[in-house]
Design brief:
This protein has about 140 residues and is an all-alpha fold. It is built from six helices and no strands. The protein is elongated, with a radius of gyration of 22 Å. The protein folds into two domains: about 60 residues, no CATH class; about 50 residues. α2 runs antiparallel to α5.
Length: about 140
């Protein structure tokens, strides 16, 4: 089997994984959460307002900028406190960890290491990919 086809097969297997399914479900919950979507819209509008204030050639009001910044931070805290967003972040982190582990195995293999002895998921999460900074995993 050629390598590109093997990568396609791996992609199919990733999409069958519980990690992937949880990410898709979390994204769908986010997309259907009207309150969360409203907060994200408010956040984006507030960010545009701040950018417009910054880019305005006239001298901007520091008190107004501070107020807008505080409002932006408050909206952001509400977004992060949303249970659907928290679940999405957890699912996204789990998917990132899986993809980092896969990437690490491939990188080790390209560098001549035995793919069967590559680092565990926990070790891979902290791996920079550079053996120079590694304290050892084998």
């Amino acid at each position: 089997m050629e390598l590109i086809q093997m990568a396609r097969e791996m992609g199919k297997e990733i999409q069958k994984s519980e990690v992937y399914k949880k990410l898709v479900e979390a994204k769908e919950r986010n997309d259907s959460d009207a309150e969360l979507q409203d907060l994200i819209g408010q956040f984006n509008l507030k960010r545009i307002t701040i950018n417009n204030q910054i880019n305005d050639n006239q001298k901007h009001d520091e008190d107004e900028m501070r107020r807008l910044d505080n409002e932006l931070k408050d909206i952001y805290r509400k977004i992060l406190a949303n249970e659907n967003m928290a679940a999405y972040n957890d699912a996204k982190n789990a998917m990132d960890d899986l993809m980092n582990q896969i990437s690490t195995i491939l990188m080790y293999s390209v560098n001549g290491e035995d793919p069967q002895t590559c680092p565990s998921r926990q070790e891979a999460a902290g791996c920079s990919g550079s053996c120079a900074s590694c304290s050892g995993c084998h």
